[in-house]
Specification:
- Four copies of one chain form a homotetramer.
- By secondary structure, chain A is of the alpha/beta class.
- Chain A has helices at 20-31, 46-55, 67-79, 97-106, 121-134, 148-158, 187-192, 195-198, 203-219, 326-345, 350-353, 360-378, and strands at residues 8-13, 35-41, 87-90, 110-113, 138-140, 165-173, 223-231, 242-249, 254-260, 269-276, 279-284, 290-295, 300-304, 384-385.
- The first copy, chain A, has a nine-stranded mixed beta sheet with strand order 13-12-11-10-6-9-8-7-14. The first copy, chain A, has a five-stranded parallel beta sheet with strand order 2-1-3-4-5, with helices on both faces.
- In chain A, strand 4 (110-113), helix 5 and strand 5 form a beta-alpha-beta unit.
- The longest helix of chain A is centred in the last third of the chain and has 20 residues, at 326-345.
- Chain A is globular.
- The B-D interface holds B 297-304, 307-308 and D 297-304, 307-308.
- Strand 13 (300-304) of chain B pairs antiparallel with strand 13 (300-304) of chain D.
Chain lengths: 391, 391, 391, 391
Amino acid sequence: MSATPRRLRLGMVGGGAGAFIGAVHRMAARLDDEWELVAAALSSDPARAAASASELRIAPERAYARYAEMAVAEAQLNRQGGPGIDAVAIVTPNHLHAPVAHAFLDAGIDVICDKPLALTLAEGQALQAKAYARGRLFVVTYTYSGYPMVRRARQLVRQGELGALRLIQVEYAQDWLSTALEGSGHKQALWRTDPALAGAAGCLGDIGTHAYQLACFVSGLQARAVSADVATLVAGRALDDQVQATLRFDAGVRGSLWACQAAAGEVNGLRMRIYGEHASLSWEQQRPEALRLRRAGGDDTELLRGRTEHGATETIRVPAGHPEGFIEAFAQIYRDTALAIRSRRAGTSAMAAAPDLTTVADGVSGLAFVEAALRSAADEGRWTALPVGRP
Amino acid sequence: MSATPRRLRLGMVGGGAGAFIGAVHRMAARLDDEWELVAAALSSDPARAAASASELRIAPERAYARYAEMAVAEAQLNRQGGPGIDAVAIVTPNHLHAPVAHAFLDAGIDVICDKPLALTLAEGQALQAKAYARGRLFVVTYTYSGYPMVRRARQLVRQGELGALRLIQVEYAQDWLSTALEGSGHKQALWRTDPALAGAAGCLGDIGTHAYQLACFVSGLQARAVSADVATLVAGRALDDQVQATLRFDAGVRGSLWACQAAAGEVNGLRMRIYGEHASLSWEQQRPEALRLRRAGGDDTELLRGRTEHGATETIRVPAGHPEGFIEAFAQIYRDTALAIRSRRAGTSAMAAAPDLTTVADGVSGLAFVEAALRSAADEGRWTALPVGRP
Amino acid sequence: MSATPRRLRLGMVGGGAGAFIGAVHRMAARLDDEWELVAAALSSDPARAAASASELRIAPERAYARYAEMAVAEAQLNRQGGPGIDAVAIVTPNHLHAPVAHAFLDAGIDVICDKPLALTLAEGQALQAKAYARGRLFVVTYTYSGYPMVRRARQLVRQGELGALRLIQVEYAQDWLSTALEGSGHKQALWRTDPALAGAAGCLGDIGTHAYQLACFVSGLQARAVSADVATLVAGRALDDQVQATLRFDAGVRGSLWACQAAAGEVNGLRMRIYGEHASLSWEQQRPEALRLRRAGGDDTELLRGRTEHGATETIRVPAGHPEGFIEAFAQIYRDTALAIRSRRAGTSAMAAAPDLTTVADGVSGLAFVEAALRSAADEGRWTALPVGRP
Amino acid sequence: MSATPRRLRLGMVGGGAGAFIGAVHRMAARLDDEWELVAAALSSDPARAAASASELRIAPERAYARYAEMAVAEAQLNRQGGPGIDAVAIVTPNHLHAPVAHAFLDAGIDVICDKPLALTLAEGQALQAKAYARGRLFVVTYTYSGYPMVRRARQLVRQGELGALRLIQVEYAQDWLSTALEGSGHKQALWRTDPALAGAAGCLGDIGTHAYQLACFVSGLQARAVSADVATLVAGRALDDQVQATLRFDAGVRGSLWACQAAAGEVNGLRMRIYGEHASLSWEQQRPEALRLRRAGGDDTELLRGRTEHGATETIRVPAGHPEGFIEAFAQIYRDTALAIRSRRAGTSAMAAAPDLTTVADGVSGLAFVEAALRSAADEGRWTALPVGRP
């Protein structure tokens, strides 16, 4: 038993009382006991920021109303050898991701950013350039890559279990925007359907990018071209709520992607199927512990988390048959981030320590997909190229 | 108990020993005891034709080597008031569907034709015109429309259970052509991948049209435009084995269609999902007795064949929980055909008696889809219109 | 292609208009074209018998009002080398199974009898003795043994795939008798809950014996002792509708059996799980095409009918992924019966030709189970022995 | 936003490095941020106790080698108004549960005890008496009662959704003891199959009691009598690994319970079905987010956690479709415990605040079931009474 290092200190921007994703980040950070939340700018309203911080037992002197002030102050603590934050989690609405990330990168602080990385590809590329230039870790929380069976799928593909890949089918369907919820003042609906806050893409950026990232993560491929149909099914909505895209990946691999937030009866239906010469894999987020391996002309095998050894990079928290879920997948990303930071500080490679960690490069890749899909749709589904090489 | 009418007399062209679909037609015709097979041209090789007929207990004098001869002879029997056939089942390879159908239409005999109707849209339209001109029933055996829960889905849509439709997703995936099976002399693979025998489309025509018909059958809609990516995944194959199409139906309804015969692990994966404002339906052919109804923001209901009353036009053969399958679905089409013929002879409308029966119009619609999809794919996925109005 | 032998000629006792199981027998007999129905005593009411026969296109001279007369007359035809029946299907209510079977055995005619064989074990043993003495085939239609995946399970067990057996769990639950349906005059409910017509056991005999036979069929074992709790859940019912039995099979194998006809929400829930040292199998009748093989400490494999070669004795009618169901399973028994009869006539062993065919011995075994379970329940669940050795 | 109270302080006995259940308790305690682990006696070996405490970042002065010393010292801190523990979590092997619990009850400290409560019913009753006499909260962690859909099932039963209950079927099957794992020195296997450490029951006590508690928790009933068959399937094992029990609950409700740890292919198969006059519910632990409601003669509905409002007492952590699992269910019990303690301190009823919390009474009930089942099995399955009234 080696000595246990101190918990890493986490700061948070956004995620005040009532926010969904901020609370998830906090549970995820807490689960494996690698992090403690010590500082935050939870709201731009000083009174709300203070109240939220108190609710989260954050010391008043580290409850900030302005993120810029927080970045400066925490960096100052770090420089003094004092207890500044080791990383900041950015859980604001989308339009603030980039400016907040810039502030903390400028302060020399590692970043954990909710997805999407930014509102535009150019913004994302600027962040990536800065993160690389400053040598900062920049994690983008593509939660679903934290599921053990998604990681196992990636590993099986890489090991050649499927043979040469042929096809990738991903989809992400929900129904919570089946009606014009934004018209009723619903907070989540409001900002996610407002171009000023969410960017040029609605459903495409919000959940389509998750599906796209999943396809890339598991296959190890990037799309080279896209032909997309982007639509708004609910009358009066300012952004898309339905996307059907056909994809061409590297090496002639075909693909399709469907994303919809007005699909009645779909709860959180992220699904992936990937077909190779010899076998295929299928996975559904609502049943995350199982991965189905199906062989050409043969039988199906259902792989279950923890049931057989496999060496993927997931954490073993509870044995097979004791279901783990969304929070645990999210916690995997926080655990990997801690591992990466500790490795870097120990003088070894951060990414080698956590090779499945999703970062700013994945975020840029998603933005490239979004922009290409929007251009294709605006041009009657014309095949539109994505940048060559991983951004 | 009313007197039971005589069995209808069925002729068959194609379907000699070893043929898959011919045997299925015969079981389907037999199941409900409405038909007896009395005449056939089972092979163009006279010796084989005679041997196959003997095996099927067909009288030697009605075992023909040439379908044209059979059409003339059976029509002659009918004119004499003798026991000629009431209908002919055409179960040859695709390229013979049209010439055989012409011969029997010309002889005044009703036709039951395996799908696809013909090799080209023009051929199909000519058959349709002739069938209408001669007043003949022309059934095209879109088997899957015979499943009770597919019919129930159609009924639920028509009754408005889903609200206004938004999206239709269909797919049909198999893996039996995952390798270049045609290179090994496999008979089914050979003709299905040979443009001279199967037409310009491979997988698109073979199974894509089933998926398309299912979408139209359940929704009551026709596609207005298609953007397609048509590919050949297995090296050296002469026809497509992979199709990804994006669809626009009437009234702004969006759709997608995927068909593939090189999808490792897929057995006979025909699946349909249809989304409306309030609810959606999903159905899978490999689990045909269940239809899932999912409500926006609500719970899922699993409807089971025979479990609750619903009034669709399926036959009640065995109670709920006693699974029916593919042969029973096929038998439904034979039963509907018998009903249609008897109704016409009784002076009432054939189609009113069997409103879910699939006919030459469906066959033409499928050919229109195939041609538009091929044109779109050849033109880089350009949106390509389908004919307006049901053909 | 060898010459096809004539269809075997089937007679039927019981199964007039409106009867469920008679119609199923007829469809099953028809499906594979091995049988034709030519004679029947469909009702003890002469007018109804004649009308039902006419409806089934049976010649008036072979439509009998009394089964005894039919047995004599058809045997006479056979003796004259005339077209008498090759076998009789007995599809009456339970209390008539034995007397009808005696009449046809006495007439030297092979018997296909619906289950249960008789009302008492003694009656069943007498039938078995007579069938053996007369050298007649006596098939008891345990339908579920006709499912291909049940036969494959039997084969896997026999091949040692599971290792030494440990446990067998079977259950059969329905809900159609959840209310006192017999009080409303429902015909099926009336006779199945009337001790005079159904025997001393209700649900235990009606469906419990199916579950028991399935356990024995797949495992190759017989129960040696039973401890049972037999109950009536619906007030006023004259026979049991709920049975929970604990079993001890040969060789220390443990088991349990649950049967219930008042289990709300259960449609036709026959399920089996069988556990060995190394692996287990599970099967559900409402999803009959799949058999799940689960290995200790390992992954699950889902075996699908027709997907991989296996050599069980089922008929290949349609390929994998084209679901077969209850009628097809029933047809398997008719096909096996035809094979057995033809083999015997060809001078080879009937049972060697159809080794999975269920016969009078299975029927006697079921009656022995019923009687032991009733005795155990009457004696506060005392462990009660079943006869040693297959009856 | 009200002020957030301080975290409750948790002590732990047992659960040093490598222990499974101790780590789960800690994650569960941490997840909702209601608890902090501040003191522990992690091992009876002082060096190991200290090292484990260091690994868990527990201050050295509160890392105890002896639980008795810890109870005294922490009570002393509490009396001084100092930061003593608010509750102790007991996660030792079974035979220590009772002595440790006595020590902390004597010290006036609330107890959270892993299950089983004790080795014998008499021991359990003594603990219950002491807990009541001292007015201490005594939680027994029946984890599965923390799953939201189990709580919803309980609520639906209580609301009469099923009508009068008829039948309860529970089972818990695993395969990790399919071989004589204890012979290889496997630590978990060793103590769980050793009568001195685990008590007189093996599988019956280890997982059978979970199944029994689930039946009681959801139904609101207690068993009145049991007829059991208890067996050892793996040669040489000192305790049972297979139990089949038939149950009679209050009010004539029938039931069965199966528990097995040598069932090849079963991972952590805890399942429950409960049938009433009008409907039934079924739930499986490996798919915990769904609860199936099936109506007599009607359709099935699948209820999903978080999808529709229902008012059960579970915590909303993440929305529907974002799976929660075992750790979250466990965390629910820690959250309820915190709620109960805070309520009592605020002068209101602890149990009214957390009515679904499982306590020493449930533990005693489970021990009563175990003892009755063992007596029944030893007496050839004789029906054996359980104590009347909730213990």
